[in-house]
């Protein structure tokens, strides 16, 4: 069957747009083909800095013939409806239509038969439409036609189009169409500098080989492999090791059509700068890779660049030009770094953080200074819970954001935290404090490292809990795919910190504490005598009038001020009246925590599902209520999963569900619940007595095991219930003719359901 070759040759395609553009082209063309009845065998798109290309093979030579019945109006319908039907179906009169008998009335039916068209004609209609509607993020118009209505827009000026169609065994045809005066043909051009002459191509294999001869590597994956392997080899030949960078590799491969790897160097004096800053400088400014000494792991004063040309001088001029730029950029970085060190030297945290008083974190959540104060208070509270030194935690929390004010982080935001660590070490801070400054942002993604030092854990948890409670309190929650404040990432970070470090924390308690820090910090920032002061009402900082009380009262840390208000509507987080001298907590705090717990449950399901766990088991555990210790939830889910994989677990689940189903039916029938303890005097059969005894024992044993957090033993206790449940359903008629006995047996079934709830809600578990 015939193949399609399509190339759109333009001035330039920015590297950041290339991958999506190739996928968009493949999808748009193939979707249109399928919609037209042209089901293909395979398709692949390619992209270089100057061209988008697509090959689609196995396309039928023509569309299938169309046979379709179309229902029309009822007999006797108004003439307007009849005429519309005839026009839509192409019938000359109703004599050409069939009549379909129907209880609701007789309808006209048109039998539409249309012969399929040649595929090349269909493609000639599809491609111009795709070119004109291509979803470039940014587009431009050019030339004389740009001022006219309907002028073609493209990412950069479009120069030529290749469109050929035909089987491998024959000479392909050119797909005849034009877009804004650019006619489709079979001519392209090679490398801009090394082989700019026109090239005539026929089909895809011919196209690829001729481009290769004209110094163009079409496949971006092949360009990446060339760059990576040549860079590794060049570094190894000089006794170094390439520092791999996949994001940079993707970008560089999008900048060249014919990759040529070269090595340059910079002055050794710049190695006094932290390696991460050197790498960021060289990477961001010149798109170059760095290398390191494999023995020491430290960076060498070398870099690797990727040129787009085989230079006649072997690349000496290209290397020299990059060295000049990198030398200038590293000089700037060295100046920034040394200036930052001087600014940090011998300064207290209070001195370092003064500027944060004027920097707003969020208009409804206060300044960065207030955020740091909240994180510090919360981290110190968390310290004993994670077995961290409170003094070190306090020091780390106060300095955690300080490097945001530095020159280096201002230039390279990606090294925030890391630079704080370097500056803290230079100032003589404890190693744990410095490490916590770097690690408190972590983990920032599923593949990111999780801090293990207790000081870092405390500060990292405080940082993320503060963000979550703050934005939840002002109703800035994630919606659909939108999460501008990365709250899902923050919640997953809290989960990973707790699970991977085996930390037992009650989320309800720590979220409440995090929320209350907003109020505590606000209270500490009130100023007596000011005409206006700030209050936090769960919906942001607003203005209210404050009144100076007296010097004596002002000095009292417990009775500081009186806030004069009018009438505060219900639902505020905190309320003050003219006669009150203390703050009163209100319901908003509980709403925030209540809404956040399900959010954590959902994130935990995502985390466990990614690890292969069943989401229904997470639901079964959370359904018990009060499950806010995530580590305990996971341990319970793991034990439940192992139990349900056993024969005892499978059979007990089946028995429990059978009991639940019977109860649901009978409760609906009787319009009542069968709760409460069964009456032992009404047991008529041994199987009833045995089941009642087993339930009592299981409740005792399973509850005791759960209290000790020994979930494996709880599951073992549950397994003892299985034979009694099996025997009950085998020998006992639940719906006995005697009403009192029936009710008692239904209560016994409810006891099965309640007994299993010691470990999970079995009704949430899927079969």
Layout of strands and helices, then pairs:
Blueprint: E1 3-10, H1 15-35, E2 42-47, E3 51-57, E4 66-74, H2 79-89, E5 98-100, E6 107-114, H3 119-132, E7 158-166, E8 173-174, E9 178-179, E10 182-185, E11 187-189, E12 198-200, H4 204-213, H5 220-237, E13 241-242, H6 246-253, E14 260-265, H7 275-286, E15 289-292, E16 299-307, H8 316-344, H9 349-352, E17 360-362, E18 366-367, H10 368-382, H11 390-399, H12 407-411, H13 418-426, H14 431-439, H15 454-473, H16 487-500, H17 507-524, E19 532-536, E20 541-547, H18 551-555, E21 562-564, E22 574-575, E23 584-585, H19 588-610, H20 615-622, H21 630-645, H22 647-670, H23 686-707, H24 711-719, H25 722-731, H26 739-756
Parallel strand pairs: 7-10
Antiparallel strand pairs: 1-3, 1-7, 2-3, 4-6, 5-6, 7-8, 9-10, 11-12, 13-15, 14-16, 15-16, 17-18, 19-20, 20-21, 22-23
Helix pairs in contact: 1-3, 5-6, 7-8, 10-11, 10-15, 10-17, 11-14, 11-15, 13-14, 14-15, 15-16, 15-17, 15-19, 16-19, 17-19, 19-20, 20-21, 21-22, 21-24, 22-25, 22-26, 23-24, 23-25, 23-26
């Amino acid at each position: 069957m015939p193949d399609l070759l399509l190339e759109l040759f333009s001035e330039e395609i920015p590297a950041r747009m290339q991958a999506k553009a190739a996928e968009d082209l493949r999808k748009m063309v193939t979707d249109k083909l399928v919609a037209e009845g042209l089901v293909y065998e395979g398709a692949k798109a390619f992209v270089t800095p100057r061209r988008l290309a697509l090959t689609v093979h196995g396309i039928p030579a023509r569309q299938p013939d169309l046979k379709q019945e179309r229902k029309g109006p009822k007999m006797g319908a108004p003439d307007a409806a009849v005429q519309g039907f005839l026009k839509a179906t192409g019938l000359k009169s109703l004599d050409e239509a069939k009549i379909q008998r129907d209880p609701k009335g007789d309808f006209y039916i048109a039998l539409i038969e249309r012969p399929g068209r040649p595929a090349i004609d269909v493609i000639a209609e599809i491609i111009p439409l795709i070119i004109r509607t291509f979803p470039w993020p940014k587009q431009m118009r050019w030339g004389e036609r740009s001022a006219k209505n309907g002028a073609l827009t493209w990412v950069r000026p479009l120069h030529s189009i290749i469109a050929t169609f035909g089987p491998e065994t024959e000479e392909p045809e050119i797909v005849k169409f034009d877009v804004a005066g650019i006619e489709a043909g079979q001519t392209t051009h090679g490398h801009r500098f090394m082989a700019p002459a026109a090239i005539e191509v026929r089909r895809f294999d011919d196209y690829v080989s001729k481009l290769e001869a004209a110094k163009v590597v079409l496949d971006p994956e092949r360009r990446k492999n060339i760059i990576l392997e040549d860079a590794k080899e060049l570094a190894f030949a000089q006794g170094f090791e390439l520092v791999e960078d996949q994001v940079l590799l993707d970008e560089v491969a999008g900048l060249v059509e014919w990759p040529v790897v070269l090595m340059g160097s910079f002055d050794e004096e710049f190695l006094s700068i932290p390696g991460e800053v050197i790498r960021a400088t060289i990477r961001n400014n010149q798109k170059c890779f760095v290398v390191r000494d494999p023995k020491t792991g430290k960076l060498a004063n070398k870099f690797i660049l990727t040129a787009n040309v085989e230079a006649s001088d072997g690349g000496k001029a290209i290397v020299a030009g990059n060295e000049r730029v990198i030398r200038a950029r590293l000089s700037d970085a060295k100046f920034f770094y040394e200036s930052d060190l001087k600014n940090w030297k011998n300064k207290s945290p209070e001195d370092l953080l003064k500027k944060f008083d004027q920097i707003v974190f969020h208009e409804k959540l206060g300044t960065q200074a207030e955020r740091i104060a909240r994180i510090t208070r919360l981290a110190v509270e968390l310290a004993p819970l994670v077995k961290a030194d409170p003094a070190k935690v306090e020091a780390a929390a106060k300095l955690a954001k300080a490097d945001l004010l530095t020159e280096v982080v201002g230039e390279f935001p990606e090294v925030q935290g890391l630079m704080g660590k370097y500056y803290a070490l230079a100032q003589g801070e404890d190693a744990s404090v410095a490490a916590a400054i770097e690690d408190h942002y972590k983990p920032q993604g599923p593949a990111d490292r999780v801090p293990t030092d207790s000081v870092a854990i405390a500060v990292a948890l405080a940082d993320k809990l503060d963000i979550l409670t703050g934005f939840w309190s002002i109703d800035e929650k994630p919606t659909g795919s939108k999460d501008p404040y990365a709250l899902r990432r923050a919640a997953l970070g809290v989960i990973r910190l707790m699970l991977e470090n085996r930390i037992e924390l009650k989320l309800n308690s720590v979220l409440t504490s995090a929320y209350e820090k907003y109020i505590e910090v606000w209270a500490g920032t009130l100023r007596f005598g000011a005409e206006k002061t700030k209050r936090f009402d769960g919906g942001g900082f607003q203005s209210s009038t404050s009144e100076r009380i007296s010097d004596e009262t002002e000095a009292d840390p417990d009775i500081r001020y009186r806030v004069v208000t009018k009438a505060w509507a219900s639902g505020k987080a905190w309320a003050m009246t003219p006669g009150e001298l203390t703050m009163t907590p209100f319901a908003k705090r509980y709403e925030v925590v209540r809404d956040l717990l399900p959010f954590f449950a959902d994130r935990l399901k995502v985390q466990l599902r990614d690890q292969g766990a069943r989401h229904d088991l997470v639901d079964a555990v959370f359904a018990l209520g009060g499950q806010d210790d995530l580590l305990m939830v996971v341990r319970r889910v793991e034990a439940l999963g192992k139990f349900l994989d056993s024969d005892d677990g499978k059979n007990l689940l089946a028995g429990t569900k059978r009991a639940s189903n019977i109860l649901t039916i009978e409760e609906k029938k009787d319009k009542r619940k069968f709760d409460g303890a069964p009456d032992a005097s009404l047991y008529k059969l041994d199987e009833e007595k045995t089941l009642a005894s087993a339930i009592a024992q299981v409740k005792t044993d399973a509850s005791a095991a759960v209290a000790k957090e020994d979930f494996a033993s709880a599951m073992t206790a549950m397994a003892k219930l299985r034979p009694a449940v099996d025997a009950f359903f085998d020998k006992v008629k639940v719906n006995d003719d005697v009403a009192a006995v029936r009710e008692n047996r239904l209560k016994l079934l409810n006891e099965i359901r309640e007994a299993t709830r010691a470990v999970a809600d079995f009704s949430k578990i899927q079969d």
